Amino acid sequence: MIAVVQFGGSNCDRDAVRALSDLGFEAERVWHEDPLPEETTGIVLPGGFSYGDYLRGGAMAARSPIMKSVREAAEDGVPVLGVCNGAQIGCESGLTPGAFTTNASARFQCEHVYLRVENADTRWTAAYEEGEVIELPIAHGEGRFELDAERYEELEADDRILFRYCDEDGNVTDEANPNGSLGNVAGVLGDSESVAVLMPHPERASLPQLGNTDGRGVLAGFEG
Amino acid sequence: MTTYTATVTVRLKRGVLDPEAETTKRALERLGFELDALRFTERYEVDLDAADADEAEARADEMAERLLANPTIHDYEVAVAEA
Description:
The structure holds 2 protein chains of 2 kinds.
Chain A: E1 2-6, H1 13-22, E2 27-31, E3 42-45, H2 59-62, H3 66-75, E4 80-83, H4 85-92, E5 99-101, E6 109-117, E7 133-140, E8 144-146, H5 149-157, E9 161-166, E10 185-189, E11 195-198, H6 216-219
Parallel strand pairs in A: 1-2, 1-3, 3-4, 4-11
Antiparallel strand pairs in A: 5-8, 6-7, 6-9, 9-10, 10-11
Chain B: E1 2-12, H1 19-30, E2 41-50, H2 53-68, E3 74-82
Antiparallel strand pairs in B: 1-2, 1-3
Subunit structure (chain A): Part of the FGAM synthase complex composed of 1 PurL, 1 PurQ and 2 PurS subunits.
Protein name (chain A): Phosphoribosylformylglycinamidine synthase subunit PurQ
Active site (chain A): 84, 201, 203
């Protein structure tokens, strides 16, 4: 069962459950004050505005008690996917490197973006080809990826960058970078391949009725 | 025990873009002010009881380390005074 952790202020939890169910997974929302069910085989940290984005996006949720269980599950190899606010929570909790902070535009941005698949050799990207361009929606005010130069080089060397913002043809350019992210980074792996975060919303591009199913491949990562 | 106020100042590391500060700077310039740069800091004032100033500072330091600042993008400093 995939546990979609619902914090106060999460608002993509239902979308995640619906998209995962459509892919054939058993998925349920789990309130953050409740324990993770024993039968948890995967965890989604969904998008939204947990704790009203007080202090920094994801800062409060990252320190909530359930995150200890999430960290332990991740250490045991349970796949964890953080989306948008969930990506901020992943970075704030140390599950994944870097920080997602205020967009360079200083504005909330809600639009469709193109992403280039940088590493197709992970559970989260195995459905794609390396270099493939996919289209996903973003909706965030704090999505600018930041990391110091040394650790960024390590991240690149370790092939832990999953997606970069690009144009329709796959060119990674400043113009195609919606939020000023370092290296156009949109999604990264944690210390192990089983943990990933990304700012764009795969769960909003997974149902055929919505006209774009490019995100299904990311969610299919829970199959391992 | 003495009551102290620990002031925790959190700022972006040098070189990290601060879009809010940039926007504020441009707004000041629109108002006719001349300035070279503008930086935001966040300041937290924490009242706490501690045996001495060192203990108060150590506790505030840990608060900054674990929550108030994000070490990936922030530097912080702590100053303690009797309340």
